[in-house]
Amino acid sequence: MFKLFGKPEKPQYNDRVLYRKKHSGYGTVIVRETFENDEWIHLLTVDGTRESAAYTAPDRHNDLVFPYTKEFEKIFFVRPELKSCLMLGGAGCSYPRYYISRHPECSMDVVEINPEMFFLAKKYFYLDELFREYELEETGRLSLIIDDAAGYLRSSGKVYDAVINDAYISNRIDMSLISPGNTSLVKSSLSENGVYLVNLISAVVGELSMPRHFVMNILSGFFENLTLYPVKPWLDPASNQNCVIIASDAAIPEHVTEPFGRP
Q1: For residue 84, how many other CB atoms are within 10 A of its CB?
Q2: Is residue 43, in this structure, part of any structural domain at all?
Q3: 150-207: pLDDT as tens digits
Q4: Residue at 204 is within a domain
Q5: Strands of 225-230's sheet, edge to edge?
Q6: Cα–Cα distances in Å, from 160 out to 23, 87, 202, 235?
Q7: Structural domain boundaries enclosing 162
Q8: What tens digit of pLDDT does each residue of 130-166 get?
Q9: Which pTM value belongs to this model?
Q10: For 33, which of 41, 50, 214, 232 is 20 to 30 Å away at the CA?
Q11: DSSP state of 119
């Protein structure tokens, strides 16, 4: 039901669970249809942590719901001529859908350890529709790889203009990927002046800021330039939130640290 003027009203019934399964080693995975910010979305959670989302309106399937995923576009601020990207951690493939639909000259490989995620991305998050619309089977612009991220980095031998690390275990980043050994693998997988972007949940200051200090300290040993900024700078800097780290041997423009703003 909708008002004649103004924003749509939420229909008077509860959110609908579309999928629920407890996976050994991966946690409880739930996909639900829900109403947020005046729009219907499909939402993927793992052990209660929000992993991916997609708008259900047909003209919005490839738009980004979560503010932090919008920040992934900053790889183009550092490397405007970027053509290839590796994404570590796929889940519902929110950003890959946006990237493929907005950058027709670019390609992406997505590495995800849990094969169920690609099934869910195709069934509930319009990834199958993306493959049809952009003829991705024929063009090869988007490759879905089921593998451990570190294992893929060791064995692939491919080189990318950007690597995005969004590999999470529930609400915790896979810290093994931040080890010096695996950071070295990331660096060797990047082309000259390539960009490494890490999505990190951390406080900016205070007792909860240890993750960001730890990650920045390791990355500083491999990249000439680093920057970190919170996605929602209006929040308490001593509280946990999504922070974006961008690392590159190329110069990082100052305006990179300006978030795209409130959703």
Answers
A1: 17
A2: no
A3: 999 999 999 999 999 998 765 667 778 899 999 999 999 999 999 999 999 999 999 9
A4: yes
A5: 142-146, 107-112, 84-88, 160-165, 190-202, 241-248, 225-230
A6: 32, 10, 27, 34
A7: 67-257
A8: 999 999 999 999 999 999 999 999 999 999 999 999 9
A9: 0.92
A10: 232
A11: H
